[in-house]
Amino acid sequence: MLNFIIRRVAIAVPTLLILLVASFWLMQTAPGGPFTSERPLPQQVLDNINAKYGLDDPLPVQLWNYLVGIVTEFDFGPSYKYKDRTVNDIIAQGFPVTLKYGTISFLVAIVTGCTLGVAAAIRQNTALDYFAVGVTIGAQVLPNFVMAPILIMIFTVWLGILPGGGWHGGEWPYLIMPVIALSTSFMASIARLTRSAMLEVLRSNFIRTARAKGLPDRTIILRHAIKPAMLPVISYLGPAFVGMVTGSFIIDSIFGTGGVGYFYVNSALNRDYAVMMGLTILLGSMTIMFNMVVDILYAWIDPKIRL
Amino acid sequence: MNISIKAALMVSAFALASPALAAGTHPTTGEALADDQSFTYRVLDEHSSVDPQIVEDVSGSEIVRDLFEGLYSQDNQGVLVPGVALSHTTNEDKTVYTFTLRDNATWSDGKPVTAGDFVYAWRRLADPATASQYQWYMEVMAIANAGPVMAGDMPTSELGVKAIDDHTLEVTLSTSLPYFHLTTTHSSTFPTPAWAIEEHGADWTKPANIVSNGAYVLTEHVPNERSVRSRNEAYWNNDATILDTVTALVINDENVALQRYFAGELDRTEIPTGQYPDLSVSNPDETTVFPRLCSYYYMFNMRPDGPAAMQDLNVRKALSYAVNRDIITENVLQGGQTAAYTFTPGATANFSVPDVDYAGMSQDERNAAAVEMMAAAGYDASNPLDLTLIYNTSEGHKKIAIAVSQMWKQTLGVNVTLENQEWKTFLQTRSNGDYQVARGGWCGDYNEASTFLDLVQSGSGYNDSKYNSPAVDELLASAKTMDDPQANYTAIEEAIAADMPLIPIYHYAGNYMIATSLKNWPVDNVEQNWYSRNLYKVAE
Predict the structure, then answer these.
(1) HEC profile for chain A?
(2) Has residue B270 been placed in a domain?
(3) Do B469 and B322 lie in a common domain?
């Protein structure tokens, strides 16, 4: 097991480096720059700005300085667009926001998704099953950029019980709509995965043996069926978790939550190089880390993987 | 009877002179004021900065105008009113301006506002180390030695600005500039506190550190969510300020913003494109429309090595004539925009719109003339012109591009390919001259026609058409030092109509939903330089 973990970590580090260099290069090849605007700056002004931010150095030098800054001072650079702030400021302010609504959405999605999926599988072809399948399909086809304004329409404009947006340090009234909008489609995927995996497991030989042995349904499902049925779900949870805690452009821009999801998309459009790199590193390392956690979990649940 | 009303009014006016009666009646209009004097509005995007010399966006400038006060401010009509400066004098040829500053202006930490604070701020703006994107504004202002200082060839102390004493500021210009004092309402010219900047560095604009001299101070800032400014007790005219707090909420989606407006969370928001006609019927008291100092246009690529068809005056004129502006403004936009036949909007101060020839024709006459010109250029049904029109990705630009391409197709048989590009890619393509026809939009930096017409100057960095007319350059240069340059501006607009380097399409209009309780929004200020200290809320 320890060997397995070491092997995974050894692959993670070069993966991150490749990601970093590739995104740096891709970003620089995009047309325009952070200071391209409808009013082109006079050359002198542009030279002064480039000199201040070191953008006049050759690209490899810029990349090197950037990496040195991160390693030695944990400095991810300045924002070229939001000049009052550094990338560290932006992450320190935005990441806790997305981490909070993302984690809650993740928990909501797992609990409701797994419950719906398992219930539907156990009562296959009953009204409960049809209901669950109906809800999950509905949830999956309703994108959150459609659902979010509808939620605001209902809860803010008509009922007047929830604020239409904002964050306020993450007080619960401000959390409800972002969590619903973000978790629904994940919940649907989890429910559908759980349902099909569960159905497959319930039909396998070892469950039939357990039933023949006369074990009660409860024990069969909780002790024997759920664990193998969770394998496909777990492989989905890693990326899903990263997807949720790193925020969503849609959630941030519709609910005005101030998370990093909005900054990530906007930094690419603004060519705000350092912000984009910083968030790429954050997202990339989290993706790598949670895929690793999933792999380890997998190996723990299914001993065949360790071989 | 009359006398007693007058007496009553006088009594209430006296009572209001004391600040203790914040929630009373308005000192001049007599309206009953609301107890809650807080104003919340929507901004599209997070502001870039609240540092006067650094800020570069509209929403940031709005905050900076509340937090800081420059030499002059604007009233609701856009006319100059005293700010920190009470008055100014100039020498004979208008190259030296001397401002007299008020002696009761103070910073939020209690220090007096002096001429030295302006000197510091202006030097800071020109300093290459500050690397401000608005450095070039020093050249618009024609401050002596701005160029060499910006290039780092001269120390900032050589900049043409000095404090004669604490309350006298002297500015030396590199050329005569009759409208120089108008440029001092721009946020990049506002004073900044040297001691706070030296103490906190780039962090000086954080709410805990910031020191400002305007009617408000920054009390809270949650990036991408909200920023809150509150009444500055140390402001010299604090007694006249009515709104206590002003909150800007960042809401990217304009439709969501409108929903939140209807939920009562906002006092002001923009009306999404196309919704003005319905809203003006359902909520007539809340919808507001007013002219803006902006022009929407299509530019032709006139580079000598560019597309051949665009070199042909007949083609350019035919394409311009065939655009039915009224359909664009009345059927596509529907938000109070006005058809444009000149580049400079009629709302610009001291500018009267010249009668360019094609503006006076009917659309049928224009179409007929366009067909003739197209034929003269050698294009017909068997040999149609193929054009590519580029615009930056946006629903609004797309609608207009589709409408215009249909007009060209129907009237002139032109085959138009529409191509949308992401913003920065679009800007790059356009400035590289890699296009035939491209969309453009321009808002005035100041309320004077030259802010528009400079765009057709041959050497201008904004001239993406690369239109090159020595006569126009000459007219622009001589207009700079004239007291009344209208004749030159008329001649330039006529030259634009004759050479058609660009197609003026419409002049912008502002469309807001404004809560009925919020009063005194300066709809007549075409630059939309609004100051929260002039706004107030009435009781409902």
Answers:
(1) CHHHHHHHHHHHHHHHHHHHHHHHHHHHHCCCCCCCCCCCCCHHHHHHHHHHHCCCCCHHHHHHHHHHHHHHHCCCCECCCCCCCEHHHHHHHHHHHHHHHHHHHHHHHHHHHHHHHHHHHHCCCCHHHHHHHHHHHHHHHCCHHHHHHHHHHHHHHHCCCCCCCCCHHHCHHHHHHHHHHHHHHHHHHHHHHHHHHHHHHHCCHHHHHHHHHCCCHHHHHHHHHHHHHHHHHHHHHHHHHHHHHCCCHHHHHHHCCCCHHHHHHHHHHHCCHHHHHHHHHHHHHHHHHHHHHHHHHHHHHCHHHHC
(2) no
(3) yes
Q: What angle do CA A34, A36, A38 make, to 5 degrees?
A: 140
What are the residues facing B503 on neighbouring strands? Answer: B298
Same domain, B46 and B170: yes
In a domain, B243, yes or no: yes
Question: Which residues 38-57 in chain A show a CB within 8 A of chain B?
Answer: 38-42, 44-45, 48-49, 51-53
Q: Is A173 on the interface with B (CB under 8 A)?
A: no
Asked whether the predicted pLDDT for residue B8 surpasses 70, the reply is: no
Query: CA-CA-CA-CA torsion for B133, B139, B143, B148, nearest 10 degrees?
Result: 80
B319 and B185 part of one domain: no
**Residues B460 and B521 grouped into a single domain:** no
Q: Which residue of A has its CA nearest to B126?
A: A45
- Which of B223, B260, B461 is facing A82, going by the closest CB pair? B223
CA atoms in the 13 A half-sphere facing the CB of A124 = 12
Top residue of A48, A168, A265 to mutate, by most chain B CBs within 10 Å, is A48
Cβ distance B136 to A37 less than 8 Å, yes or no, reads no
- Number of folded domains that form chain B: 2
User: Does residue B14 surpass a pLDDT of 50?
Assistant: no
> CATH number, domain at B519?
3.90.76.10
Rg (CA), chain A: 24
CB half-sphere exposure, A32, CA atoms < 13 A = 23
Supply the range of the domain harboring residue B50. 2-247+515-537
Between CA A66 and CA A286 the distance in angstroms is 20
B147 lies within 8 A of chain A by CB = yes
Angle at B218 between CA B217 and CA B220, to 5 degrees: 145
Cα gap B166→B112, rounded to integer Å: 9
Q: What is the CATH number of the domain that holds B322?
A: 3.10.105.10
Tell me how close the Cα of B152 comes to any Cα of chain A, in angstroms.
9
Does B14 contact A at CB distance below 8 Å? no
Task: Kindly calculate the radius of gyration of chain B based on its CA atoms and give it in whole angstroms.
Answer: 25
Q: What is the per-residue pLDDT across B37-53, written as a single tens digit (0 to 9) for each?
A: 999 999 998 899 999 99
Q: What are phi and psi of B388, to 5 degrees?
A: -115, 130
Q: Does residue B465 belong to the interface with chain A, where contact is any CB pair within 8 Å?
A: no
Place of tokens 């010399």: B53
Nearest Cα to Cα of residue A116 among A106, A127, A128, A105? A128
Interface check for B255 against chain A (CB to CB < 8 A): the answer is yes
The distance of B4 to chain A (nearest Cα, Å) reads: 47
In angstroms, rounded to a whole number, what is the distance separating the alpha carbons of residues B75 and B297?
A: 30
Distance CA B101, CA B82 (A): 9
User: B399 in a domain, yes or no?
Assistant: yes
Pair B382, B414 in one domain: yes
Does the structure's ipTM exceed the value 0.90? no
Residue B290, beta-bridge partner list: B510
Residue B15 has pLDDT above 50, yes or no: no
Question: Which residues of A are less than 8 Å from B49 in CB distance?
Answer: 82-84
Residue B373 C-alpha, separation from nearest chain A C-alpha, in angstroms: 32
Read off the pLDDT of residues A269-294 as tens digits, 9 standing for 90 and up.
999 999 999 999 998 988 888 888 88
Q: Which amino acid is at B353?
A: V
**Same domain assignment for residues B314 and B337:** yes
